[in-house]
Amino acid sequence: MSTPVALELRNVRHVFGETVAVDEFSIDVDAGEVVCLLGPSGCGKTTVLRLAAGLEALQRGDVFIGETHVAGDGVMVPPERRGVGLVFQDYALFPHLNVSQNVVFGLGDMSAAERSIRAVTALEQVGMEWAASRYPHTLSGGQQQRVALARAMAPEPPVILLDEPFSGYDARLRDKVRDEILHILKESGTAALLVTHDAEEAMFMADRIGVMRDGRLVQFDKPDELYMRPRDTFVAEFFGEVNKLYGTAVEGSVSTPIGRFPAPALSDGEEAEIVIRPEAIGIVAESSDAALCGKVLASRMLGRSSLIHLCLCQQTKEELHIHSRVPGRFLPDEAEIVSIEVDPNRAFVFPVSRTR
Questions:
Q1: Which CATH architecture has domain 243-355?
Q2: CATH hierarchy code of domain 5-238
Q3: Sequential pLDDT tens for the chain (356 residues)
Q4: Model-level pTM?
Q5: What sign for the dihedral angle of Cα 83, 26, 89, 71?
Q6: Which letter does DSSP use for residue 69 in this model?
Q7: Would you call 342 helix, strand, or coil by DSSP?
């Protein structure tokens, strides 16, 4: 049995003046699924969230919450009747109301007793029942975020929309809070659409990620597929540092100073860009005359891995710099000559025209 769709946007287009914010955009979020919209500032991801919530009037396309058509073709269901929970970047808690009152505020046609029970249940879900009588200013940022999530979850919506919910935290607290929020969402079974510009955050939180660029959905897939099989250089670069090399396709492959890479989709003579992740470049400390060699410019330990800056100038007779990332502590000396091995399965070849 297929999982029901909790939220769907179909062929959405939205324009602000002469600026196309979202164009030909379609996405779906299944019940119980966490989907992240990922992209740089100005790519349209927050506009998508606002259109889904009903905070912007849809200009073209359709929005469905479950099987209910809430926007498009003359339909415009207001935000308060869409049954969608909203969690904003700044929490949007009322400072003059205590935690319990903030959570109750979002509950409509219920008796006072029902609202109180629902508020307690929502606060228990996020581990904040102890703070029911506290005021927002007495809580930490992470605690306020959980209260905002409790308020969004209290009406038991089929979908929760989160707009950059972790951007205001330092790195250590951000890791802790997003781990807590992910567990809460998964335990509740609520579908979630989350906006972020942080690729690591998207990979941590999401079952599927939609990568956006200039208002369009570039690629929509599971995190591992996006990392291992990016559609273009833009997607590959968004998920981490890459080495870039250029060449020309000849008989289904492209030759570079660090090896030949298959390019079956390119025509002879077509310019290509080869994108190689640093972890695809292995280093052997003992050099060999037959091996590809590089000179170490610098090596730095970055915690769980080491980053080695290499120059292939002795091999290529030109200043060609690449980076290698290896697990753990590996710090060859500066100016040391090392052998290099490249994993072709983690190198991606794209036509240059797609990257510009």
A1: Beta Barrel (2.40)
A2: 3.40.50.300
A3: 678 999 999 999 999 999 999 999 999 999 999 999 999 999 999 999 999 999 999 999 999 999 999 999 999 999 989 989 998 877 788 999 999 999 998 787 788 888 889 899 989 988 899 999 999 999 988 888 889 889 998 888 999 999 988 877 777 778 888 898 899 899 889 999 999 999 999 999 999 999 999 999 999 999 999 999 999 999 999 998 999 999 999 998 998 888 889 998 889 999 999 999 999 999 875 655 556 888 899 999 998 999 999 998 766 566 789 999 999 999 999 988 888 888 887 889 999 855 44
A4: 0.88
A5: negative
A6: E
A7: strand
Structure tokens at 106: 């979002």
Tokens of 235: 């997607």
* Helix or strand (DSSP H, E) at 53: helix 45-53
Structure tokens at 85: 């929970």
3-state SS class at 300: strand
Q: Which of 22, 27, 39, 28 is nearest to 4 (CA)?
A: 28
Q: Tokens standing for 87?
A: 């969690």
Domain residue extents for the chain: 5-238, 243-355
Q: Is 312 left (phi over 0), alpha (psi -120 to 50) or beta?
A: alpha
Q: What is the 3-state secondary structure (H, E, C) of 7-21?
A: EEEEEEEEEECCEEE
Give the Å distances, CA to CA, from 42 to 48, 51, 182, 324.
12, 15, 26, 32
Provide the β-strand partners of residue 283. Answer: 340
CB under 8 Å to 82, separation ≥6 — which residues? 53, 54, 65, 70
Closest CA to 314 of 333, 336, 332, 286: 336
Contact 313, 355 (CB under 8 A): no
Closest CA to 48 of 165, 147, 193: 193
With beta carbons less than 8 A apart as the criterion, state whether 173 and 137 touch: no
